[in-house]
Amino acid sequence: MTQVAWVFPGQGSQSVGMGRDLYDNVKSARAVFAQADKALGFPISRLCFEGPEDELRQTINAQPALVIASYACLEAAREISGNRLSAPAFLAGHSLGEYTALAVAGVFDFATAVRLARERGRLMHKAGQKHPGSMAAILGLDESKLAEVCRKSDTVMANINCPGQIVISGAIENVSKAMEMAIAAGASRAIPLQVSGAFHSPLMQPAVEGMIKYLDATTFKTPSIPVIGNVTALPLDTAEAVKTELHSQLTSPVQWQRTIEYMVQQGVSTFIEIGPGKVLTGLIRRINKEVKTINIGDLETVKSLAEQI
Predict the structure, then answer these.
(1) CB neighbours (10 Å) of residue 49?
(2) Going from the N-terminus, what domains does the chain have, and what CATH number goes with each?
(3) Global pTM?
(4) Which pLDDT tens digit goes with each residue over 66-107?
(5) Active site amino acids
(6) Tens of pLDDT along 247-281?
């Protein structure tokens, strides 16, 4: 029997217009956007559909918007398939996408996930203002060599995405220095990222302190489907493990390559990326060329998946 995992994208996958065709054509997706608008107290659906792009890209908006668009996509897939979409063996999300995965696993409800994502985005932006930082994607450099670059430049590896693609994070001048050092060490490219802070680095510590307060006020349930955590690349099997993960992931690297490798070791042979963009589909193909990848992010791809079931 084919083991399937669902994965959910993180910040950077957002785009103006995301979810609009689902909203216009699928009742359950429309209900998701309406619920999100009510949960946040303003029409974030309009921001998803119409932008402007620079406002949607802001961390405080991009994070809840991606949870909403991804969740709407899943609900649309369930409706269009006539609820024939089988439950996956595992769930995972890249950074912010972990909140979508946890909502799908029933750890907290959708409205709570949206509010937590909004607060996470606000706190991360605020931490970036307090401790200015940046991030850069380093391509074509071995992890051990990049670890040495990070050590010498006082930066950290923030996203270990796939072989040959690792994102680093730190103070602005340190990341600039690390980019030069990485090229000198043999990296093929060093690409600065458009972010409002040094995510997944110690500079996000102020966000952790704020987030703990919100997480402590949230009721967590045990995941109904195993969620593979970003920090450990292992299943989060208790409510307490989830809470610890969400504290830690703000300042710890996203172990995406190890997350995918773990699920493959457990027998997963098909990965469905649910939500805007195709970032995770591309990473998974670079991690393991043998597995099947499917992406559903709009009405056309949702209908295509429903026809295959």
Answers:
(1) 19
(2) 3-129+201-308 (3.40.366.10), 133-192 (3.30.70.250)
(3) 0.97
(4) 999 999 999 999 999 998 898 999 999 999 999 999 999 999
(5) 95, 200
(6) 999 999 999 999 999 999 999 999 999 999 999 99
